[in-house]
Amino acid sequence: MAGIKxxxxxxxxxxxADLAKAKSGQSEVAAIPDVGVEVYYARRGDDYDDMxxxxxxxxxxxxxxKRQDKDHAADVSRTYEANDRLTLLMREHQAQQYQLISxxxxxxxxxxxxxxxxxxxxxKKVSLVNAQYRGGSSALPELLAARRDLLSGEIASNxxxxxxADAWAAIRYLIPQDVK
Length: 180
Description:
The protein is mostly helical. The protein contains three helices and two strands.
Protein backbone atom coordinates (compact mmCIF):
# COMPACT_ATOMS: atom_id res chain seq x y z
CA MET A 1 0.00 0.00 0.00
CA ALA A 2 2.88 2.37 0.76
CA GLY A 3 4.32 1.81 -2.72
CA ILE A 4 1.04 2.81 -4.34
CA LYS A 5 1.35 6.25 -2.75
CA UNK A 6 4.56 6.75 -4.76
CA UNK A 7 2.84 6.19 -8.11
CA UNK A 8 2.82 9.39 -10.21
CA UNK A 9 -0.96 9.32 -10.75
CA UNK A 10 -1.58 9.00 -7.01
CA UNK A 11 0.93 11.76 -6.22
CA UNK A 12 -0.81 14.07 -8.69
CA UNK A 13 -4.25 13.27 -7.24
CA UNK A 14 -2.93 13.89 -3.71
CA UNK A 15 -1.53 17.26 -4.78
CA UNK A 16 -4.86 18.19 -6.38
CA ALA A 17 -6.65 17.23 -3.15
CA ASP A 18 -4.22 19.34 -1.10
CA LEU A 19 -4.70 22.29 -3.46
CA ALA A 20 -8.50 21.99 -3.23
CA LYS A 21 -8.23 21.86 0.56
CA ALA A 22 -6.09 25.01 0.58
CA LYS A 23 -8.55 26.85 -1.69
CA SER A 24 -11.38 25.75 0.58
CA GLY A 25 -9.52 27.16 3.58
CA GLN A 26 -9.00 30.46 1.78
CA SER A 27 -12.65 30.76 0.83
CA GLU A 28 -13.64 29.86 4.39
CA VAL A 29 -11.64 32.81 5.66
CA ALA A 30 -13.13 35.03 2.93
CA ALA A 31 -16.65 34.02 4.00
CA ILE A 32 -16.17 35.38 7.51
CA PRO A 33 -17.69 38.87 7.82
CA ASP A 34 -15.11 41.63 8.00
CA VAL A 35 -14.89 43.54 11.25
CA GLY A 36 -12.58 46.49 11.35
CA VAL A 37 -11.42 49.10 13.84
CA GLU A 38 -9.69 52.30 12.82
CA VAL A 39 -8.03 54.68 15.20
CA TYR A 40 -6.61 57.90 13.90
CA TYR A 41 -4.96 61.03 15.16
CA ALA A 42 -4.87 64.26 13.21
CA ARG A 43 -2.68 67.18 14.07
CA ARG A 44 -4.21 70.29 12.65
CA GLY A 45 -3.06 73.81 12.31
CA ASP A 46 -2.20 76.13 15.23
CA ASP A 47 -5.66 77.68 15.21
CA TYR A 48 -7.43 74.37 15.74
CA ASP A 49 -7.31 71.56 18.27
CA ASP A 50 -5.84 68.16 17.36
CA MET A 51 -8.35 65.44 16.43
CA UNK A 52 -8.60 61.82 17.58
CA UNK A 53 -11.09 59.43 16.05
CA UNK A 54 -12.21 55.81 16.30
CA UNK A 55 -14.20 54.05 13.58
CA UNK A 56 -15.76 50.57 13.72
CA UNK A 57 -16.84 48.72 10.56
CA UNK A 58 -18.98 45.59 10.50
CA UNK A 59 -20.45 43.80 7.48
CA UNK A 60 -24.20 43.51 7.75
CA UNK A 61 -25.73 40.12 6.92
CA UNK A 62 -27.97 41.69 4.27
CA UNK A 63 -28.05 39.92 0.89
CA UNK A 64 -26.08 37.04 2.33
CA UNK A 65 -26.87 34.86 -0.67
CA LYS A 66 -24.71 37.10 -2.85
CA ARG A 67 -21.71 36.89 -0.57
CA GLN A 68 -18.81 34.46 -0.57
CA ASP A 69 -20.79 31.62 1.04
CA LYS A 70 -21.55 30.17 -2.38
CA ASP A 71 -17.89 30.25 -3.33
CA HIS A 72 -16.95 28.56 -0.07
CA ALA A 73 -19.58 25.85 -0.58
CA ALA A 74 -18.27 25.26 -4.10
CA ASP A 75 -14.68 25.04 -2.85
CA VAL A 76 -15.69 22.60 -0.11
CA SER A 77 -17.49 20.53 -2.74
CA ARG A 78 -14.35 20.54 -4.92
CA THR A 79 -12.31 19.43 -1.91
CA TYR A 80 -14.65 16.49 -1.29
CA GLU A 81 -14.54 15.63 -4.98
CA ALA A 82 -10.72 15.70 -5.08
CA ASN A 83 -10.50 13.55 -1.95
CA ASP A 84 -12.99 11.10 -3.42
CA ARG A 85 -10.98 10.92 -6.66
CA LEU A 86 -7.82 10.25 -4.65
CA THR A 87 -9.51 7.50 -2.62
CA LEU A 88 -10.98 5.92 -5.75
CA LEU A 89 -7.64 6.03 -7.56
CA MET A 90 -5.86 4.41 -4.61
CA ARG A 91 -8.51 1.68 -4.43
CA GLU A 92 -8.20 1.04 -8.16
CA HIS A 93 -4.42 0.82 -7.90
CA GLN A 94 -4.68 -1.50 -4.90
CA ALA A 95 -7.13 -3.79 -6.72
CA GLN A 96 -4.88 -3.73 -9.77
CA GLN A 97 -1.92 -4.56 -7.54
CA TYR A 98 -3.70 -7.60 -6.08
CA GLN A 99 -4.69 -8.73 -9.58
CA LEU A 100 -1.15 -8.35 -10.90
CA ILE A 101 0.32 -10.21 -7.95
CA SER A 102 -2.14 -13.05 -8.56
CA UNK A 103 -1.19 -13.12 -12.24
CA UNK A 104 2.50 -13.11 -11.30
CA UNK A 105 2.04 -16.01 -8.87
CA UNK A 106 0.09 -18.01 -11.47
CA UNK A 107 2.70 -17.32 -14.16
CA UNK A 108 5.49 -18.27 -11.75
CA UNK A 109 3.76 -21.54 -10.89
CA UNK A 110 3.37 -22.38 -14.58
CA UNK A 111 6.98 -21.45 -15.34
CA UNK A 112 8.31 -23.44 -12.38
CA UNK A 113 6.25 -26.48 -13.40
CA UNK A 114 7.52 -26.21 -16.98
CA UNK A 115 11.14 -25.98 -15.80
CA UNK A 116 11.03 -28.61 -13.07
CA UNK A 117 8.60 -31.21 -14.43
CA UNK A 118 7.53 -30.90 -18.06
CA UNK A 119 10.83 -30.14 -19.80
CA UNK A 120 12.85 -32.82 -17.94
CA UNK A 121 10.21 -35.43 -18.82
CA UNK A 122 10.18 -34.36 -22.47
CA UNK A 123 13.99 -34.52 -22.59
CA LYS A 124 13.93 -38.01 -21.10
CA LYS A 125 11.31 -39.02 -23.67
CA VAL A 126 13.47 -37.71 -26.55
CA SER A 127 16.50 -39.51 -25.16
CA LEU A 128 14.50 -42.75 -24.74
CA VAL A 129 12.95 -42.59 -28.22
CA ASN A 130 16.37 -41.71 -29.67
CA ALA A 131 17.89 -44.79 -28.00
CA GLN A 132 15.00 -46.92 -29.29
CA TYR A 133 15.48 -45.52 -32.79
CA ARG A 134 19.20 -46.34 -32.69
CA GLY A 135 18.36 -49.81 -31.45
CA GLY A 136 15.92 -50.26 -34.31
CA SER A 137 12.79 -50.67 -32.18
CA SER A 138 11.34 -47.22 -32.97
CA ALA A 139 10.51 -45.49 -36.24
CA LEU A 140 11.69 -42.06 -37.36
CA PRO A 141 8.23 -40.42 -37.08
CA GLU A 142 8.14 -41.31 -33.37
CA LEU A 143 11.55 -39.68 -32.84
CA LEU A 144 10.45 -36.57 -34.75
CA ALA A 145 7.20 -36.42 -32.75
CA ALA A 146 9.16 -36.61 -29.49
CA ARG A 147 11.48 -33.80 -30.64
CA ARG A 148 8.45 -31.74 -31.76
CA ASP A 149 6.90 -32.25 -28.32
CA LEU A 150 10.16 -31.09 -26.69
CA LEU A 151 10.24 -27.97 -28.87
CA SER A 152 6.58 -27.27 -28.06
CA GLY A 153 7.39 -27.64 -24.37
CA GLU A 154 10.31 -25.22 -24.69
CA ILE A 155 8.07 -22.72 -26.50
CA ALA A 156 5.48 -23.08 -23.73
CA SER A 157 8.23 -22.54 -21.16
CA ASN A 158 9.38 -19.40 -23.01
CA UNK A 159 5.79 -18.13 -23.14
CA UNK A 160 5.41 -18.76 -19.41
CA UNK A 161 8.67 -16.89 -18.79
CA UNK A 162 7.38 -13.98 -20.91
CA UNK A 163 4.09 -13.89 -18.97
CA UNK A 164 6.10 -13.90 -15.74
CA ALA A 165 8.26 -11.00 -16.95
CA ASP A 166 5.20 -9.05 -18.16
CA ALA A 167 3.50 -9.42 -14.77
CA TRP A 168 6.69 -8.40 -12.97
CA ALA A 169 7.08 -5.29 -15.17
CA ALA A 170 3.44 -4.31 -14.60
CA ILE A 171 3.89 -4.65 -10.84
CA ARG A 172 7.08 -2.56 -10.98
CA TYR A 173 5.21 0.15 -12.93
CA LEU A 174 2.30 0.18 -10.51
CA ILE A 175 4.52 0.24 -7.42
CA PRO A 176 7.50 2.52 -8.12
CA GLN A 177 10.58 1.69 -6.10
CA ASP A 178 13.88 3.43 -5.50
CA VAL A 179 12.28 6.82 -6.08
CA LYS A 180 14.58 9.57 -4.85
